[in-house]
Amino acid sequence: MPEPILKISGLDAFYEDFQALYGIDLEVAQGEVLAIIGANGAGKTTLMRSISGLTQNKADMVTFRGDRIGALRADEVAEKGIALVPEGRQLFPSLSVEENLLIGGQIGRKGPWSLSAVYELFPILQERRNQQSTSLSGGQQQMVAIGRALMANPDLILFDEISLGLAPIIIKDIYAALPGIIGEGMSALIVEQDITKALSVSQRFYCLQEGRVSLEGASATVAREDISRAYFGVE
Ligand code: ATP
């Protein structure tokens, strides 16, 4: 494998006395799409938060393009080129669609993504650009959250629960847009409840169980029984 763009080594994470992640080791190559799967409470969101600077880590637990970013704040991590599409969207409710998108662009990183590129990807957002973001459907709000992350022109994009709570037709649209999103060498980590979907869009996967990596491997060749065991912990 070429030098990874993201390298996580021995990552622990805590909520006060509760340990949510135990010694996670994970690598993402340039241009690679990785799926993160696991049951509710396995630690997927905590992993996304740890990478994006929303939890306190030790500096050398997370390395991005050779820089030790584990102890950086979320805004500093974003400037390095990592963008998060958070669980539950977390849009700014009083702002319009376009204002939400522009906030993502404030980082000022150069790259292929701009307002017009996001509107080309999701034309409905251009139609709704002056509407308050909360007046949109859940699927359209997810498009805004994705567009906001893209506006930062990241090298690595993290999708947390990309399809949770969305109608199947919208999920299809969002997955259809993924190749265009991830093209041009961008790497991605995708947290997804739907294991079949997660495996179909990724090259490799990591399965978490109670805060530990229970299985990792190639998405195309993993056996279903192995996934079930790693996911549910049943023998
Ligand atoms: P889900 O699919 O439900 O989002 P997840 O795999 O993303 O699950 P996390 O949200 O990372 O899991 O949670 C991992 C563990 O940490 C769970 O046991 C959860 O209860 C706990 N946890 C998460 N957030 C907090 C918090 N703010 N305070 C205390 N414990 C937390």
UniProtKB/TrEMBL annotation:
State the superkingdom.
Bacteria
State any GO BP term from the record: L-amino acid transport
Q: Which Pfam families match?
A: ABC_tran (PF00005)
Molecular function in Gene Ontology: ATP binding; ATP hydrolysis activity; branched-chain amino acid transmembrane transporter activity
Q: Which SUPFAM superfamilies match?
A: P-loop containing nucleoside triphosphate hydrolases
Cross-referenced InterPro entries: AAA+_ATPase (IPR003593), ABC_transporter-like_ATP-bd (IPR003439), ABC_transporter-like_CS (IPR017871), BCAA_Transport_ATP-bd_LivF (IPR052156), P-loop_NTPase (IPR027417)
Segments passing through the bilayer: none
Entry annotated with the keyword Transport: yes
Going by the UniProt record, its keywords in alphabetical order are: Amino-acid transport, ATP-binding, Nucleotide-binding, Transport
Which positions fall inside the ABC transporter domain?
A: 6-235
What family does the Swiss-Prot or TrEMBL record give for this protein?
A: Belongs to the ABC transporter superfamily.
Name of protein: Amino acid/amide ABC transporter ATP-binding protein 2 (HAAT family)
